[in-house]
Amino acid sequence: MFDIVSQGFKDAALKLKGQTRLTEDNIAPALDTVRRSLLDADVDYGVVKNFLENVRGQALGSVVHTKAKSAEMKVSAGDHFIKLCHDELLLLLGGEQTEIVRNTKGPTIILLVGLQGAGKTTHAAKLAKLLKETHKMRPLLVAADVYRPAAREQLKVLGERIDVPVFTLDTNDAVEIARKGLEHARQEWLDLVIVDTAGRLAIDETLMSEIENIKTAIQPQNVLLVIDAMIGQDAVRTASAFDSRVNLTGVILTKLDGDTRGGAALSIKKVTGKNILFTGVGESLERLEEFRPEGMATRILGMGDVVGLMQDFSKAIDEDQAARSANRMMEGHFDFDDFLGMLQSIQKMGPLKDIISKTPLAGQINQQDLDKVDDREMMRIAAMVHSMTKQERGTPEILLPKTPEGRSRLQRIARGSGRTEKDVKDLIERFMQMKQMMSLFSGGLGGGLLGKIPGMGGLNQLANMAKMMKGGGMGGFPGMGGMPGLGGLMGGMPGMGGGRQGGLSTQDLAEINRQRKKKKEEKKARAKNRR
To answer: Angle at the Cα of 146 (from 143 to 150), degrees rounded to 5?
Structure first.
């Protein structure tokens, strides 16, 4: 998502490269580049015009301090231009993060509305799961879509999957279902009611009248429009039409992971005055996010979204399991079972492309390389690990092809996973490099200051994973050549290696061994002093 817009801002910054101050002459080409990218992304023309006027006014009316107190810290005209664009984008996306309105005197009621096919039923379940897990609410799903075949049955199935009760009645009176559902929630002491309503292929009087009647009957604190981001400016027009009849309180924008140009997300707030509260970024029920304007603005500008990345880690990684894994690593234990757990944690976070886009240096990775990322390679690697015996996973040293037995094991694993012997050999060699690194990290990142930052333990795991997969990304495995920069990107963070492309060099391994030797000597010295 937002690929067109992001590229436009990158190109605009390049046009200002080398400039020490912003003038009417040098800012015009940059603004023209941004204008074209926004219009190509299907952003409302009036919104684009207002955005450019605001950026131009601030750019020409301010002084750029190109040097800070430190001689090493410099701010170019291009940096200042991007900062102005960031601030304006933030306002365009809604400014501060907005949450649902809570009811202090009973269940919080959310009425979902929208056109048919927008994904209301699925997102009712997604929303219930998200609020249940992150806000500890006790939800009830109310199936009030009485027209679409099997809509109520679909919601029941989804409710069972997320362990949330679903209420409906054997009647075609949607208003009665909604009213009785609210009464049921009060009787069961549930504090959240999400009402799924019917949609139409287009806005009509029948649809609007029914929604108005439901709203009057249950008096919801939140009326959220579920809308498909892929329909572009039609999304904004639809939002305006619903708002004029039922007074929306917010928007759930779906399919932001699809082939969408992002115009709807950048236009809705400005045109309708309604904030985006949630975004759907995938098919699974876990793939709903609370919308953070700051995170979206920085991602559009290629700066990543570290807060969002940390939130993904916290959702994907079990804290108890992470603590046990950390203890094992601190004790010098790291085997293929640990590695497999890391793989599974990363997979839970969502598509690798999304993970990379949230990292701080995402803007430095070529878009073509990102487009080549193949999540299926993670499954292929997992297949090789699953083809190992319990003994082999726990004692990976026996897989080194130094003996006929080791080579025989490689052949068996290759046949069992459908990979080549070279693939298996490369995996084992890089795993052994990673294991050596873990011994260093156990006294460094894992036990040091950085390891105490919430979420950084998981980030360390991802960094090490990337390093193992040939440093320059995951190019060391078939199909992963499209990930140059992931290992280097993670390695570029403080304390995570040098960000260098390629696998571990001789110097790297020498430094690791030197650190291990130093630790042993320090341990001996402490033991001698105690005596």
So the answer is: 75
Contact, 487 vs 472, CB < 8 A?
yes
Sequence-distant (≥ 6) Cβ neighbours of residue 384 within 8 angstroms: 413, 414, 417, 419, 423, 424, 427
pLDDT score at 74: 59
Whether residue 530 is contained in a domain is answered as no
* Residue linked to tokens 């990102």: 370
Looking at every residue in the chain, the average pLDDT score rounds to: 76
- Domain containing 484 equals 310-516
Crossing angle, helix 233-246 and helix 263-272, to 10 degrees? 30
DSSP string, 362-377: GGGS-HHHHHT--THH
- In whole angstroms, how large is the CA radius of gyration of the chain? 27
Distance, CA of 360 to CA of 292 (rounded, Å): 16
Query: Looking at the structure, do residues 228 and 289 belong to the same domain, yes or no?
Result: yes
Helices (H), 188-289: 205-218, 233-246, 263-272
Same domain, 83 and 141: no
Q: Which two tokens stand for residue 530?
A: 């105690």
| Lookup: tokens for 112 | 């979902």
Cα–Cα distance, 8 to 263 (Å, whole number): 13
The token pair that represents 287 in the structure block = 């793939």
Task: Give rounded-to-5 percent helix, strand, coil for the chain.
Answer: 55, 10, 35
pTM greater than 0.70 (yes/no): no
Among 297, 332, 364, the domain boundary falls at 297
Residues 194, 139 contacting (CB under 8 angstroms): yes
Least-confidence region, from 66-75, 412-421, 435-444, 510-519: 66-75
The reply to whether 102 falls in a domain is no
